[in-house]
Each structure stands twice: as structure tokens, then as C-alpha cells.
């Protein structure tokens, strides 16, 4: 299945697009931070793997999971709130979620991501927790996934801005809730309601079933082999995970 990017960072035009909405966006060179919405817009940076894990765990226990996840990530990602007109909050959430690794549908569960990277690199848990979450995800994808075709752009009318934000939030929530060995569900799933209604169990305790929501097929991951290619080791070194000899 081709991978679809729901948030497009266009460096040539200097803008970010999601759900048919585009605003100016420019890198600052500081920790991968981006200025969103013009020269006086908010400045946001990628969250670490540890920050994302804590925010997602808190969101899973909250009555409104999506709102809790987006609010927590936005709080930790924002370096400056900005002094100019603010971009739509839904778009800012899409940017923060994408920088947190929500826009790669190939990424495995948080548990499998951590286990695969630590086993392959021989790094310390503290180094992984302090590394950018998106870079850790990319390394896990390089270790565990087959190369796939990349297809960007859904079209302006495909999804609304709010729908894109919910889709990205649900992808992270699903990955946070999945146990090690369940990997990922093909495509972005939407297993978590955004209301205050209690979640009723709808799954049977079978190894192939995800832990909540409707039933989605999951790919069980096999044993993780150590990273052998220079690309995977290069990502680990840049993320600060690989233990130096």
C-alpha cells in the first residue's frame, strides 16, 4: 500500500499544507524548529520520544483523547507563541503531530519502535527518550519495514483540516496503545472516539486483535535483526541513540 503524507512541507514555496489549507512555514535551523504562519508566527520544534510517550499515555487515560494528545504535544513543541496573527489551531496541531511522527503510516507501535532501535543500536534508554520522536520512528521503519512507494497529496477536497488532525492523532494513539509484537495496522486507523462517552470493549483476547476499537488486521513482527546498513546506522548517530565505540 502506498504511503500517503497528510501534511506537506513545501520548502520551495515556503509553506505547509494540510486539509486544503496552506500557511507560510520556514525552518529556523534550531532543533528542527519551524516558524509557522509567517515571520511572527509561533515557533514549534519536534518533541522527543520520551515527551511523546508521556503525552500519549496521559491522553489514553483522558476522557477526550484527541484533545488531550494535541494539547499536550502543542504545549511541549511550542518554543515561542508568536506575536503575529496565529495560524488555524487545527493546522498548527497537524504540524506538531507530523513533527511528532504521526504522518508515517508504516511506523510500528511505540513499544516495537523502542525495542527495535535499542536492540539494533545498542544504545541506552535515556538516549532514546531524549532523541526526536520522528527520527526514532524513521530508524524503526528502516529496520522493520520493506521500502514502499511514496505518494504525497490527497487533494484539497479529500479531507478537511479537522479530519486530517483527527487522523494523525488517532494514528499516534493507536501506536501508543498497541503492545509489543502487534506492530502496526495497515493504513491509518481511527479506533478512538473524541467524545466523553465511555469506551466499551469490542474485541476478543486474540493475539491478532488490537487492544481497543474495531477490529483491524495487524502484522506481527518477527525477531529484530541488528542494523547492518549504513543508512540505519547514520540515522541512529544523528538521533544520538547509537552508542559510540
Task: Report on the architecture of this protein.
It is a single chain. It is globular and about 45 Å long. The model is unreliable at 185-228 (pLDDT under 50). The chain is α+β, with helices and mostly antiparallel strands and 245 residues long. The protein has helices at 49-60, 65-77, 89-99, 110-121, 125-130, 133-144, 161-177, 230-239; strands at 3-5, 8-10, 15-18, 21-27, 34-36, 43-44, 78-80, 150-152. Strand 4 (21-27) and strand 5 (34-36) form a beta hairpin. The strands form 2 sheets. Strands 2-3-4-5-6-7 form a 6-stranded antiparallel sheet. A two-stranded parallel ribbon has the order 1-8. Helices cover 38% and strands 11% of the residues. It contains 8 helices and 8 strands. It has a domain at 3-99.
Shape descriptor: globular
Beta-strand share of residues:
5-15%
- Low-pLDDT runs of 5+ residues are 185-228
Structural class by SSE content: alpha+beta
Biggest sheet character = 6 strands, antiparallel
Strand elements, count: 8
Arithmetic mean pLDDT: 77
Radius of gyration: 18 Å
Separate helix tally: 8
**N-C termini distance:** 39 Å
